[in-house]
Amino acid sequence: MSVNLQKGQKISLDKEAGGALTRIVMGLGWDAIKKKGLFGFGAKTESVDLDASCVLFDEAGRPVDFVWFRQLKSRDGSVNHTGDNRTGAGDGDDEQIVVDLSHVPAQVKSLVFTVNSFTGQTFAQVENAYCRIVNAADQKEVARYDLSVQGAHSAQIMAKLYRHNGEWKMHAIGENGNGRTFDDLMPQITAHL
Q: 11-15, 101-105, 183-187 — which is least confidently predicted?
């Protein structure tokens, strides 16, 4: 059963999944903005380009690699982005980052996931935005975090996966920020390491 995460909540991924996780998928979904026409006529949608990113950090809090729409794979191959969705059209996950936890190098102690509005819309405008962690072995949702927090921010530091006593845990950070890419959030991210 999936856990609805709240800002600041920490969970053990293995416990929530009912066993050791080796591969996870971080899914990001959202809907295009629906604009109503005059008297119900002329309704249209406005594309929203949200971008999922993952920053890999070592024990000292230094970034060692990045996965985002301009670099779809980590250098070691353990983290892969499935591609950039620039509209939010369609159902389900619009972007996914697949992490093979069993192949994340030992020097990587945490992975931080972010969402940025590349097209500049704020989360007050974006509808039905969420991120979720899925067990890739059985496609069962382990945890979900609602991103549809109303506010005038264009980015969010979503969550951190980190190693603790031999297992992977997740911290739902949920901190709002501004910027078109993860790089704009780096000063905020490092405060959570």
A: 11-15
Alpha carbon of residue 149 to chain centroid: 14
Q: Domains plus CATH for the chain?
A: 3-31+47-190 (2.60.60.30)
How far apart CA 32 and CA 47 sit, in angstroms, is 5
Query: Residue 95 burial by CB count (10 A; 0-12/13-18/19+): exposed, middle or buried?
Result: buried
Q: pTM of whole model > 0.90? A: no
pLDDT of residue 1: 47
Q: What's at 81, amino acid-wise? A: H
For residues 6-29, give the mean pLDDT. 80
Residue type, 124: A
What is the Cα–Cα distance from 184 to 150, expressed in whole angstroms? 20
- Cβ burial of 154 (10 Å; 0-12, 13-18, 19+) is buried
CA angle (183 as vertex; 179, 188 as ends), nearest 5: 75
Among candidate residues 101, 144, 148, the one with its CA nearest the CA of residue 1: 144
Residue whose tokens read 């389900």: 92
CB 16 within 8 A of CB 143: yes
